[in-house]
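User: Show me an example of a complex going from sequences to structure tokens.

Assistant: Sure. Here are the input components:
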Amino acid sequence: MKSFVLACVAAIVVAGIAGFALNSVQKPADQAYSTTGVRL
Amino acid sequence: MARLLAQARFVIGALALALILAIAAPAVAQQPTGVNPNAASVKEEQLLKGLKIISGRGTIPDTKSYNLEQPAGRDWRQFHNVTLRWTGAIAILGMLLLLVVFYLIRGQVKLESGFSGRRIVRFNAFERFIHWVTATCFIILAISGLNITFGRSLLLPLIGESAFAGWSQWAKYAHNYLSFPFTIGVVVIFLMWIAGNIPNRVDVEWLKRGGGIVGHDHPPAYRFNAGQKAIYWSQIIGGVAIAVTGYVLMFPFYLTDIAGMQTAQMVHAIVAVLFVALMLAHIYIGTIGMEGAFEAMGEGTVDVNWAKEHHSLWLEQEMARTGPNESQRQPMATPAE
């Protein structure tokens, strides 16, 4: 049970780090696929 | 005379009518049935068949937006909307049905010699930790992935558009982010258990004797039997295929074009539904399918009699390595968690 709880915590922590890294690497579509002249 | 002329006119008129109908019938049969076979449509069809992508011109930075039509996308849409749903439904529901039937016929694989009260370490804390990281991530990845394929058909009518949109958004976040600990888990499991999962002659004998699952035989096995090795290699090969194609999809157009993205999605989806079906069997045999099996991954130890029945060669190795008195004596076997 202890291993299971620790595994869940570790998965959430790694997923959180991955989410932070992904959000810093990838831009939202309105920024990635348009010029500054586009109004959304 | 006048009567004769009238009869002649009638006969000639009837013959003329019959002739007109006979000539007109093929013309009616050749009427178009919705397809206009003029030059324009023929050229469009040739274009769709001949070109991979029909492109125009644009001014925004994303040059992919200049593509007006990708005819191969129709095949992909057919796969995504029809083929994948049928494949997934047959694989997953088929496996569930198979397991239910198997359970009703065979029942739980009992520990025939009973619990001895002496226990032996089967998986240490680190092995269980990695197993559960991978397993919990897999379950959430499977549910959130199946939502992409079946959610719109099955869940949307039940919970409504607003709830489905919110759930799907968070499911997609979870799917993307939990793929990273899952991938780490697959890599560590590969390294951690590869030594015990190399196929050998004992596996052939184990398979010939039905592995103890079919019937009540107890063929010898080392730490991992042939069934567990099959699960291990399926998990490694399937996990790598799913991870690679998943990251191709997560970083669209970084590594490939639209055709590559569609291929990656098809491989990802097919491997995933087969993976889910396989893991259902793994979960079954590790929980209700076999008495005493869950304790191995639940608390890390198994009863010595369980080890003797299912992994006799491994027990001999462990006894030779640690000595017979190293196993823990417990008053009663603890139930599965």
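The lines above are the inputs; the final block is the predicted structure for all two components together. Chain A has a mean pLDDT of 84.
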